[in-house]
Each structure stands twice: as C-alpha cells, then as structure tokens.
Amino acid sequence: MIAFLVVFLAVARLCLAHGSHEDHGSIEDWATRHMIEEHHISNFDPGSFFMLHDYDSSGVWTVDEVRRTYGLDDSSNAGLTEERKQQILKEIFGIFDPQKTGVIRQSEWMRLSREGKKLPDFGTGPGHHGDLEYEYEIHHFEKYHGDGATEEDLTHPEDIEHFRQHDHAEDAQIQLAKLQQMAIVEANIPIKFLKSPSR
Asked: Where do the TM regions start and end (predicted)?
C-alpha cells in the first residue's frame, strides 16, 4: 500500500511539474488570453504586444496585421462571414485609430492602452496566427504528447492529419521538381495552341 502511494505521488508530481494546459477562456482580457495561449507569455506590456504583432516592423498595424493577429482567416474561423470580419476590424480600428488613418500607430496604441483601452473579445478564439507547424505544436503536441513522445505515440486524428499535410507538401515539392526539369510542360500550354490530332 505504501509503495503504491509513493508511486502515485511521484507520478502526480511529474504531471503537475509539466505545467498547465487549462482552458484560459475565463480570462476576460483578450490580449492576455491571446498571449498565454498563442505565445506562452503571461507577463508583457502594451509595447511588447504591439511589436510582436507588427509583423513587418513598420511601427503601424495594418488591417491585414490586425486580421492576422485575431486569426480571422484561420480555418478555426471559417464560419465567419466576410461581413462579420469587417465589422470586427471596424470596431478595433474605431478604438485604436481615432484619426481614421487606416492604420494603428504604435504611439496611438500606447496612449490608448495607458488610458485603459483594450482589444475586444469577439468570441472568435485566441487568435491563431502561426503557420500549421506552430499551431500543431502549441495546441496539440505540447498538450497531449510532450517532449518524450515517440512517433508511435502520435496516433490522434490531429497527428494523422498533421502528417498527411506533410506528405501532401512533400508530394507537391517532388512534382514541382519534376516539372522544373522539363523543357516544356505540355499541361501548361493552352488548348488553342495545341496541334489538333489529324483525322
């Protein structure tokens, strides 16, 4: 009985030491939830948040950068209409672009953040804006597998889909390499330029 208790406590300690992958949906501030779930960062300031999401380091957020930060074009938001996406962007820019310049300047972001303005939560999720590999890593692999996982452990539907995507990309790369070796790719010649078969 004591041996069982010791083993149980040791395993429990290891599980707890790994950290939490709990649902952070109870955090009311969207930016904080986004930083925790998407970047594993819980301590940040408005300046670092802005710079991290200024993807081209221009000192302004464009519509495309805000759209990407909120993950509006991610497959998890495929059900959102373009009209709803535009409403979301309009509301964000209404808060952080008071001069209606079409961009959110870092200086305006900082000033308005100090005044207590925050990015709204539109119920569209935490803002998935990484590539497929990054999103798989932080939202599935870390949560269900961890560092000690072997290839044999990766049997969840998400794992299978992830490897299928890799196989598809590899097949496409092989096909492209074959096409690049060809002097003429007949499939690319419009039909009107092809010699019609003689009868």
From this structure: none
Burial 166-181 (b: 16+ CB within 10 A, else e): eeeeeeeeeeeeeeee
Domain count, the chain: 1
Cα 50 from Cα 67, distance rounded (Å): 14
Q: Is residue 197 part of a domain?
A: no
Q: Does pLDDT of 153 surpass 70?
A: no
Choice between 139 and 124, residue whose per-residue pLDDT is larger:
124
CATH of the domain at 46: 1.10.238.10
State the pLDDT at residue 74.
81
pTM of this prediction?
Answer: 0.60
In a domain, 154, yes or no: no
Which pair of tokens denotes residue 115?
């005044």
Centroid of chain to Cα 4: 42
Residue 120: domain span = 18-133
